[in-house]
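=== RUN LOG ===
request id: a7f3
mode: sequence -> structure
chains: 1
length: 383
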Amino acid sequence: MVFIYGGGFNVVEGGGAVGGLDESTLAQKGVVVVTANYRLGALGFLAHPQLDNESPHNSSGNYGILDQQAALIWVQKNIGAFGGDPSRVTIFGQSAGGDSVFIHLSSPQSRGLYQHAIIESGPFWVNGPTIKHVRSKAEAEQFGQQFAANLNYTGPDAIAQMRKMSAADVINATPWYPSSWLSNYGAHFSTKVDGWVLPESTEKTFTLHHQNPVPLMIGTNADDGYTLVAGANMTVPEYVTFVRNYFKQDADSVLLQYPANSTAEVQTRLGQIMTRYDFAYSAKYAAGLMSDLNPDTYLYRYSYHIPDPKLPPLAFHGSETYLLFGEQVLSDPSVPDNIVDMWTRFAKTGNPNGGMNVTWPRYTREADRYLDINTVPTVMSGY
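=== RESULT ===
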């Protein structure tokens, strides 16, 4: 099981050995767990026409994804020495790590490097209402050129001059926003459609059924958006304009479902919109498209509220990783036991069933059935 961490592709302190997470909870179930670092921010995702010119693929900007692919190649070559099986590799990631799994499912260079995939709250849309992760080549290169210009590097030797900077200076110059809302909604370093690593957007790849058709387990958290919209500070008129600009002819029905009469209520509604449209709907759409190619597709919603006073009383973004990786928090022991069991069973066989009193059905659009992960796992319909 190869874990890909999140952080919006821009949190430069990210790493494979994520603080507080204990991969041994998975290893105790008989799997070999691999974590790997990948470059973030400008070091991982700077796109620039001059870098394109140096590439035999006319590509730049997806260096962080290339790092992940290098880790997967290493696993293929070396995991046998650690008791692993290179023919049974599962890639799994949360948030931007889940987004990365989408990219590996879409990238020709990643085919053959894994056999199963798990996506936990990974953004999918090219242009979601509140999250914008995958950029076009033009957008990414414009952002990269502006980043260089802000450092006074312009002209035909801009990249050559930037290479004189230390890695620390590049990291310190990487823009980061003061709020979770802006870090998701604002312009930032991220993955791009480069025509090589990512020939087309993940959304288009899945829509055209060009993705790698491996067994897939995918899901979201019931309150994914609530912590990610922190700091939006949007007024009611600004909220109405935001909804109308994005949803166009559907704006009235969205505002009817998510009305707001105060700044505090706007914050709540933005969290609900992000949860529904950027996470839940994208997971459901991707699951349906994968099920067309491989029936071993499983959709979940994690709705358990960890009853620990140190944490928000929500199924917030990333809260399932506390239980998956053995974080020391107060919880019903059956919930982490079930999560670890399902994740590792799927990694071994491509099917998460066998350890619970409920059978998690394969996902189909017609039945629209999924597993609600809570104190008592329950099969539901209408995701």
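=== NOTES ===
The chain has 16 helices and eight strands.
Residues 2-232+278-381 form a domain with the Rossmann fold fold (CATH 3.40.50.1820).
=== END ===
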